[in-house]
Specification:
Blueprint (H helix, E strand, L loop, with lengths): L2 H10 L15 E2 L2 E2 L2 E2 L2 E2 L2 H15 L7 E5 L6 H12 L5 E5 L2 H4 L4 H11 L1 E26 L2 E15 L4 E6 L1 H9 L6 E6 L5 E7 L13 E2 L7 E11 H11 L2 H6 L8 H16 L3 E5 L1 E5 L6 H10 L7 E6 L3 E3 L6 E3 L4 H4 L2 E5 L5 H14 L6 H13 L2 H6 L1 H10 L7 H10 L3 H10 L7
Parallel strand pairs: 5-16, 5-19, 6-15, 11-12, 15-16
Antiparallel strand pairs: 1-2, 3-4, 7-8, 7-10, 7-13, 7-14, 8-9, 10-11, 17-18
């Protein structure tokens, strides 16, 4: 394939970009918060507070506490929560929900919150298993007619030759393993593992010593395995407590075994058994706990029952780091007539470490727009960047960021490689912000249905 063809394919490819995909951490270097770092801009005090919380979590000093991030809309509350999770480690589970979700689920509110909490707690398991490991030298399949269709042939076994630096051996494998080899497309030169107990086949990659067939390959190259073909290997993998709950429940449920369907609610007894099993693994040195982050946005939407549940959950031995966020001031606690700061009961507020965020300055808005434009592959001229900065300052940062992609599409339609102020001004007329929408409603109020 020519380089031109590759460029054309790349240009047509679709890349999904999340709203916070550029966040890599809290932007702290040698204990000092950088003005711009790890995708975060400004909010120096809030990020410094978050950094100290990360140190508390690492030292195990967050028991019985939660975190509350408060500030006006569009001031980076979610970004800081993600930054905390990133700083805790690559394997740290991060579960984000909106408080309103608990009312739309088909399960009880407290069950929904419990499942979210269990999804935010990881268990890193270390396990030694016997496996057959080697480079495939040869595969000869044995075929037979399908029992119900004589014109259709199926694999009933295979002769498989594997090689390492130390030895070469040929094995007879059954139809299940032969079927897996076919489904995975295993061919001569692939390095594979076959679990000695379960027969599960895993393709590791293409051996570096194998013949090079194609100029471009998508499979990664791996060295020829050393040692004997049959060996004991350590496997390290991470699962969540919720995944263990589901497996345990389905293993004890005839309906789950037959149909493999997820239950809507997990019995407390199942969770208790899972917790005991995990504690035993930890005591034996086979596993370690990875407390993750449960982030609940729009926390003011939680009701008094949900707040009570979370307050009790913070005392649990197996609990994630709970981070709440809200942009509300003094408002009623949902489900009551009581007003409280942020709509959160005072007894729970006393147990939360509160971080405040502030509106961004004009320079910070400009820097955030530059970061998001780079993340979304939108080239901006200087006048377009200035126009978006003015929009972010006078209207809202979120609205300014929402104009990026429409403006770039329009620029390409006009034959431009870079977005200019003309495209920004044009898309501003097509897409309105909240303030403009309110003015529109007032102007045509009598024409709208009530």
């Amino acid at each position: 394939m020519s380089s031109v063809g590759i460029r054309e394919i790349s240009a047509r490819a679709t890349r999904r970009v999340g709203a916070h995909s550029h966040i890599r951490g809290l932007g702290v270097e040698n204990g000092k918060v950088l003005p711009v770092g790890d995708g975060l801009v400004g909010q120096i005090e809030a990020r410094e507070a978050a950094w100290l919380i990360v140190q508390m979590i690492k030292e195990g000093k967050m028991a019985g506490k939660g975190i509350l991030i408060v500030g006006p809309p569009g001031t980076g509350k979610t970004a800081i929560a993600i930054g905390i999770a990133r700083e805790l480690g690559e394997d740290t589970p991060f579960v984000a929900i909106s408080a309103a979700e608990i009312y739309s689920a088909e399960i009880k509110k407290t069950e929904y919150l419990m499942q979210a909490m269990r999804k935010a707690i990881g268990v890193r398991v270390r396990e030694f298993r016997k496996v057959y490991e080697g480079m495939v030298v040869k595969i000869d399949y044995e075929w037979a007619s399908h029992p119900y269709n004589p014109y259709y042939r199926i694999p009933v076994g295979a002769k498989l030759t594997l090689k390492t630096k130390s030895e070469t051996r040929t094995f007879s494998v059954d139809e299940d393993i032969a079927q897996q080899l076919l489904e995975l497309g295993i061919s001569k030169g692939d390095v594979i593992w076959i679990d000695a107990e379960t027969g599960r086949v895993v393709r590791v990659g293409r051996c570096k010593e194998a013949e090079v067939t194609y100029d471009i390959e998508y499979r990664r190259r791996v060295p020829l395995p050393s040692g004997p073909i049959l060996k004991e290997k350590e496997f390290v993998y991470t699962v969540t407590l919720h995944e263990l709950d589901m497996r345990s429940y389905q293993a004890g449920s005839l309906f789950g075994l037959i149909f493999g369907l997820e239950t809507r609610e997990i019995p407390s007894e199942v969770r208790r058994q899972v917790d005991e099993r995990v504690r035993k693994w930890i005591e034996e040195g086979r596993a370690e706990l990875l407390p993750g982050v449960l982030f609940i946005d729009d926390a003011h939407m939680l009701d008094i029952e949900a707040f009570t549940f979370l307050s009790r959950a913070m005392e649990s031995e197996l609990a994630p780091i709970i981070i709440l966020a809200t942009n509300r001031g003094i408002t009623k606690i949902r489900g009551t007539d009581i007003e409280a700061p942020h709509g959160i009961p005072l007894d729970l507020l006393d147990r939360l470490i509160i971080i405040k965020t502030k509106p961004y300055t004009e320079d910070e808005i400009r820097e955030i727009i530059k970061i998001r434009a780079k993340e979304e592959d939108v080239p901006l001229s200087d006048d377009a960047l200035q126009a978006l900065t003015e929009v972010g300052r006078s209207r809202s940062l979120r609205y300014a960021l929402q104009l990026l992609t429409p403006a770039y599409i329009l620029a390409k339609q006009r034959g431009k490689d870079v977005v200019t102020r003309d495209e920004i001004e044009y898309v501003k007329k097509l897409f309105v912000d909240v303030q403009e929408s309110v003015r529109y409603l007032k102007e045509f109020e009598e024409k709208f249905l009530r």
